[in-house]
Design goal:
With 558 residues, the chain is of the alpha/beta class. The chain contains 19 helices and 12 strands. A 7-stranded mixed beta sheet has the order 2-8-7-6-5-3-4, with helices on both faces. Helix 9 packs parallel to helix 16 and helix 18 crosses helix 19. The chain is globular and about 75 Å long.
Length: 558
C-alpha cells in the first residue's frame, strides 16, 4: 500500500467506520532480508471469504463458558474450535488494522470519557455472560487499545508484533504451566537452559547462571541482590544489621530501577551515587573513580557499578572496558544494564558498542525490546555459576524435594525471587527457530539503518534540532522548532517555549490519533521527542510522515 500524505490521512480519519478488508488474512510482506532466504513452497491460501471475514456470533447466544468445558465429544470439540476460531479472527483483523497506515494509532478518550463509553461492559458481577457477549467484549476491548504494532507508534522501546512470537504466547497460555520445577515444565525447562546458554555464549561466557525475570527492573534487582550477597552473605539470615554501609554507582541517565533496587534492598537512595555523563550521555569514568574514592574515604563499601548499554532516553552506551578496569581496581561488582542495547551482540557491525561485555559480573538483557519478542521477556545473567541459588534458595520441601526420581538440578525455581514464574522462553525460542541468528542480526541492523535515515533527514532541516548529533544505539532525539521560536533571542525563553510546545504537540497527535512519539526533559534540557527503533514494520515513508505531521500539527497552535 502506498503511504498516504499527511493531508490524505486527515481525510481518511474523518469517517469512523469498521473496515472489513477482503485481504485481511493475506500474509504481510516483510522487508527483504539480506540473506535472501526463499520459501521452498509458495501457497495461496483459499478462504471462504463470505464466511471467514464476517462476524456472526448467533450460534454462541445463550452458550456459556461452562459449555466449553465439555469438549471430549465431537459436538463439544466443534463448539470449542468454533469459539477459538472467532477469537482468532478478531485478533487477525486487529493485527491487520495495526499495519494499515490509514488507521489511527489510537482512538483517544480521557479516562472518564472511556469509562462512560465502556460502562456497559466494564463491570463484573454475579451474572455470567454468554459467549456471544464475550466475543463482543474482546472486539470492543481491542477497539480502544493503543495499536503498539502500528508503524507510527513510536512511543516506547518495545514496539511492533512478531507473529511467530504471538503464536508462541498462545501455545504458552495453552500449556499453562509454571516454571519452578522440571516435573511440571520438562520441555520448557530444557528450552530455557538451551536459550540462556546460547545467550551466555553471545556475551562471551562459557558458563554462568541465568534466569528469565518479569522485566528489566527485576533483572537489575537480581544483580544488586546477588552483588550484596557476595560481600554480605550474613544479610540473608540477619538482615541489614549484618551489613556495612554499601554504595551503588550508576550514571545520571541510567534507568530508575537501579535506584529502586537500592531502596528495596535497604541500601538507600542516599547511597546511590549518580555519575555525570559526557555530551553523548555516556558515563564519565574519571568521575566514577572519584566517586568510588570519595565513598571509601567516608567508610562506605562500594558494592556495584551499573554500566548502562543503551540508555533509556539517548540510547548511549557506557564505556564497558574502561568501567571494568575501575571495577577490577577497586574490587567492585560490575553490572551491565543491556535491557535496550544488549541485542547488538547478534551483530558484528555493532557489537563493538559492548566491547568488553565478557568482563561483567552480571548483565540484564531484554529480548522484548530490540529483538521484538512479545512482552514480557527479560533475562538476568550472572557470570559465576550457582550464585542465584545461593542468594535465593530456601529449600521449600513441598516443592524442591531432593529425592525426586530425576536430576533435581533442573528445578530452577529456588534460584528465583518469585515462586510462580511465567514461561517467557517459548515465544523467544520459537522466534529464534524461525529466524536463526541471521534473522535477528538483519532485524537489528535495519533498526540502526532507519535511525540513521531519520537522523540524516533532520540534520538537513532548519526547523528541527538534534539533541545529540551522533548516535550510538538506534535512538534519535530531537526538537521541532518553528520559526517563531527560532527567532527568540533569550535561551531561557526559547527553552520555556520549546518545553511547552513539545508537550502540546504530543497532546495533539494523541487526540488526532495519527501517531505517538515519546517526549521527556533531560537534566536542564527542555522537553524533546525520542524515537527508538524496534518495530520492523516502520518504513522511511512512515518517518517522512512523522516529520511532516509535526509541522502540520504545529500550524494548528496559535
Amino acid at each position: 500500500m502506498e503511504a498516504l500524505s499527511n493531508k490524505e490521512f486527515d481525510n481518511s480519519v474523518i469517517e469512523e467506520k469498521e473496515k472489513i478488508c477482503e485481504d485481511i488474512l493475506t500474509p504481510l510482506k516483510p522487508e527483504k532480508s539480506k540473506r535472501h532466504v526463499k520459501s521452498i513452497r509458495q501457497t495461496d491460501f483459499a478462504l471462504d471469504r463470505k464466511k471467514s471475514l464476517s462476524f456472526d456470533w448467533s450460534e454462541f447466544e445463550k452458550v456459556f463458558a461452562e459449555d466449553l468445558s465439555e469438549f471430549n465429544n465431537k459436538a463439544g470439540f466443534e463448539r470449542l474450535v468454533s469459539f477459538l476460531s472467532e477469537v482468532t479472527k478478531i485478533i487477525a483483523k486487529y493485527l491487520k488494522s495495526e499495519r494499515d497506515v490509514t488507521s489511527k494509532v489510537l482512538d483517544f478518550h480521557h479516562p472518564h470519557q472511556l469509562r462512560e463509553m465502556m460502562d456497559h461492559c466494564l463491570y463484573v458481577d454475579d451474572q455470567p455472560r454468554d459467549l456471544e457477549q464475550l466475543l463482543s467484549d474482546c472486539k470492543e476491548t481491542l477497539k480502544y487499545c493503543v495499536k503498539t504494532a502500528h508503524p507510527r507508534f513510536l512511543n516506547q522501546l518495545s514496539t511492533g508484533i512478531d507473529i511467530i512470537g504471538l503464536a508462541g504466547e498462545w501455545v504458552t497460555a495453552a500449556a499453562n504451566t509454571n516454571m519452578f520445577t522440571y516435573e511440571i515444565a520438562p520441555v520448557f525447562t530444557l528450552m530455557e537452559e538451551t536459550v540462556l546458554q546460547r545467550m551466555k555464549q553471545l556475551i562471551g561466557w562459557s558458563d554462568g547462571d541465568a534466569i528469565f525475570a518479569p522485566g528489566g527492573a527485576m533483572s537489575n534487582l537480581y544483580a544488586v541482590l546477588t552483588a550484596r550477597h557476595l560481600v554480605c552473605p550474613d544479610v540473608k539470615h540477619d538482615g541489614m544489621y549484618a551489613a556495612n554501609k554499601l554504595a551503588v554507582f550508576t550514571s545520571v541517565q541510567s534507568h530508575f530501577s537501579i535506584k529502586k533496587a537500592a531502596v528495596l534492598l535497604g541500601i538507600g537512595l542516599n547511597n546511590v551515587y549518580s555519575i555525570d555523563t559526557d555530551s553523548r550521555g555516556r558515563m564519565d569514568v574519571a568521575k566514577l573513580e572519584e566517586a568510588i574514592q570519595r565513598a571509601m574515604a567516608a567508610g562506605v563499601r562500594p558494592l556495584l557499578v551499573n554500566a548502562t548499554c543503551g540508555t533509556t532516553v539517548l540510547g548511549a552506551y557506557d564505556p564497558v572496558n574502561a568501567i571494568a578496569d575501575v571495577c577490577e581496581k577497586y574490587g567492585v561488582w560490575m553490572h551491565i544494564d543491556g535491557a535496550w542495547g544488549g541485542s547488538v551482540l547478534f551483530t558484528e557491525k555493532y557489537r563493538y558498542l559492548l566491547d568488553g561485555v565478557h568482563r561483567a559480573d552480571s548483565m540484564t538483557w531484554n529480548p522484548h525490546k530490540m529483538m521484538g519478542v512479545p512482552l514480557q521477556c527479560s533475562a538476568i545473567f550472572i557470570k559465576k555459576q550457582g550464585e542465584l541459588e545461593s542468594v535465593n534458595e530456601l529449600g521449600a520441601d513441598y516443592l524442591y524435594q531432593k529425592d525426586k526420581m530425576y536430576d533435581t538440578s533442573y528445578d530452577t525455581g529456588d534460584k528465583a525471587i518469585q515462586c510462580g514464574r511465567h514461561n517467557d522462553v517459548f515465544k523467544l525460542w520459537l522466534m529464534w527457530r524461525s529466524k536463526g541468528d541471521g534473522g535477528f542480526r538483519d532485524q537489528i541492523e535495519r533498526n540502526f539503518e532507519k535511525a540513521r535515515y531519520l537522523l540524516d533527514k533532520l540534520r538537513r532541516r532548519d526547523d528541527f534540532e538534534l539533541v545529540i548529533d551522533e548516535i550510538e544505539g538506534p535512538t534519535v532525539c530531537f526538537w521541532y522548532i518553528p520559526e517563531k521560536i527560532r527567532a527568540i533571542k533569550s535561551n531561557q525563553d526559547r527553552c520555556f517555549h520549546l518545553h511547552k510546545l513539545t508537550a502540546t504537540l504530543k497532546a495533539l497527535m494523541m487526540e488526532k490519533g495519527s501517531m505517538m512519539l515519546q517526549y521527556q526533559p533531560l537534566g536542564q534540557l527542555p522537553n524533546f521527542f525520542r524515537i527508538a527503533f524496534s518495530n520492523p514494520a516502520i518504513t522511511t515513508a512512515d518517518l517522512d510522515f512523522v516529520v511532516q505531521e509535526l509541522v502540520d500539527l504545529a500550524e494548528q497552535i496559535d
